[in-house]
Predict the structure.
Amino acid sequence: WQRKELLAGSPVFFLMNKVRVSPQRSRLSDAPTILFVSPGGWTEWWGESLESAGLGGSENFAVTHAEELAKIGYYVIVASNFAEPPKYHNGVVYISSFSLPDFLADVVVDVCFVNRYPEYVPFIARHVSKIYLVLHDLLLNDSFMPVMPQLTGVLCLSNWHMDFVGILFPF
């Protein structure tokens, strides 16, 4: 998130205030739609960035998993830290994280993977019934974990990481 107007506050709260619920959402494909929400990164990035400049671990996770799911027939979108317009690379559509409120209000998403930021789960849960939180870092004691039916699972890096998260959030 490099936009100056958002540096004073958390981007997710900016996005939550823009959310709307549309009675008519459309499918972009006959295939199930999978969304990766990966708003992090030091610079703007999308799928081609992995090959041209390299990416950090969570961004690499989003790109490689999205591409593999696209190869086996899913319609895959990654919401990442880059400016519009949407781009297409290796079977995956890349959209700006800033477009999430309108995108989620207009498009049916079957499964969503949220990278790193638990605070995105309640925002996305208004539109998606299966959400997986992918934790790439250690959580701090003041972190929160949304407990809601849409949060289908939490993916950790290792068994040790899973045990650590379990101590903070024993659910």
Q: What stands out?
A: Helices lie at 11-18, 47-52, 57-71, 100-106, 120-125, 159-168. The mean pLDDT is 79.
